[in-house]
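Below: protein 1.
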Amino acid sequence: MIPATGATEVLRPSPGKWLAMVAISGALVWIGTRILGTHPLVGWSCIVLFGLCGALAVLNLVPGASRLVLDADGFEIVSLFRRTRVRWPEVSRFGSTRVGMHRLVGFDFVDGHAGSERLRRVNRNLSGFQAALPDTYGRSAGDLAAQLDARLAAHRAETLTRS
């Protein structure tokens, strides 16, 4: 069920995914400590790289660090406490895409949207979309894209009836 266009909905990432990342990173850090004596460069590389990955995963578990807020005006992406606001009139379409092994929700901006044209072109070549959400917030990419598309269509219909 899709909430009314004026209703605010907050989607949070699945904590299980981030807990798994913490566990895997911890195991790889442990392996790095075990091989320090025989392969110091590889050991330190594992400790530093996977220690940073684990720290980022722990940060994503902090309440308020990551979420997607949908409201009547648009949506706000919060990723590692950094906020990005996108208004519905700035978006032309949503869709599901694959980047590497990950399914994501991609979106395109309307023509004339301010921002880096070069970055949008690179993103389009990689994923088929100009931008993408950083997470699927515990849903399938297709379901989340359909939900966002429905909100976008409802906003457009509401805008037309007001004018």
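Below: protein 2.
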Amino acid sequence: MTERGFHPFAVLHFLRKTILLYLLPLLQVLFARNWAALRTALVQGATLLTVLAAVSAAVLYAGRWRVDAQGTLRVRWRLGVRLDRCLKASQLAALTIERPLLYRLAGASRVVLYPAGHKRTLTLLLSAQNAQFLADRMMPRRDAVAHTPRGGEKLAFAVLGANGLSTLALLALAIKQSRPYAPDAQTAAFAHLNRIAAWAARWLPMGTAWLLVLGGVLFCASLVRSAAHAAHYTVWRTESHLGSRGGFVRRYEMRLALEHLSYADLRRSPATWALGCCPVFVTAGSCQPEIPLLVWREDGPFLQELLPGFVLPPKAPVDTAGRSIPAFFLPAGIPCGLCLLLTAVSRYTLPALTVPLLVVTAVFAALLVGAYNGWRKEGIWLQNGRLTLRWQHGFHLHDICVLCPVPALTAMQSPWAAAVHRTNLTLTFPGGVKCKVRSVKCSELPFLLF
């Protein structure tokens, strides 16, 4: 197999990190207005840049890679020190290809390889053709069963991918104005942004008006970004791996090895209950994708086609007798109490800050509601031979189905938890990814040999 070179962008990060070496002396003499020293610094900076560019060119020339027909990748660096790395396709947990706008203009792609069971990844800067060639050799896409979201499912994908506290506030408006395609949701959000700003400026203090307008702007930016991710989105499954591809401005592709999947994470939030569907994230090795694999309705069968044997934790609330209240409520309760105290003080000292502080207090109060939801529902169970767990993180309730063999478990008990026979469980998956379930009853875990 012929060896191939890397894209010139492979050395840009090296030059970017060294830019301070020749810019700082220039800034010092420029502020001192010493023009003779400035000319000397310019010559020194140009010389240093030339040397670094020559070293970068030598590194780029000395670096080679090749992949054989069996999917074994060999990367070779030989510049003073010989450094070779080998990775077999069977050892690969996940592979991602990212093509931001600048990379697309230059014909480059960033390929990130995630070895199974390791935190350390391998990043390669290749041309677009070489990146696709490498992906097809390491994780070939043959006889794939593909699915492309349409209509309301695409709208749900865009809305659920938009992160921000204002998502729920503009969700009803986005659904009402859209029929039912994602770009309409963007248009509706932007069209009503001016109305929000005008209403806030007329009826609310200046600080609160800015908070609401900032929330609306952040939501719209997040919604546009999420809708761009949802453009041209396709998810598929073969006998050996899962994959997805999409993006409008920032193109991306993800492939996950089925035999190295760690868990599937179904994230519930107020927006998911309003839409009646949930985003599903799948983790393999140390790869935790930012983009959901798909948006799933509970009456839809497609998730079972992608992940056979996927089960959810039971819906019934858990037994909360003896459950640790501080573990759940202190992280949001302390800042909420502090904001309430500041609001009470500002009522008599700085009345103009009272309403903005109430807005911040409302945010922490919402986090307290989420903590209460986790206090009632967090737990770990064995369902149909699968280990399942549920834990609350901020506004999201994570329903997790473990797809790998039982991960490493760490139990931690304080004297108070031991007195009520409860423990905190930390599950460590291959690749170092961790999930924590708080205040679990030991008597409910016979399958974990408690």
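Confidence is low (pLDDT under 50) at residues 163-193, 199-204.
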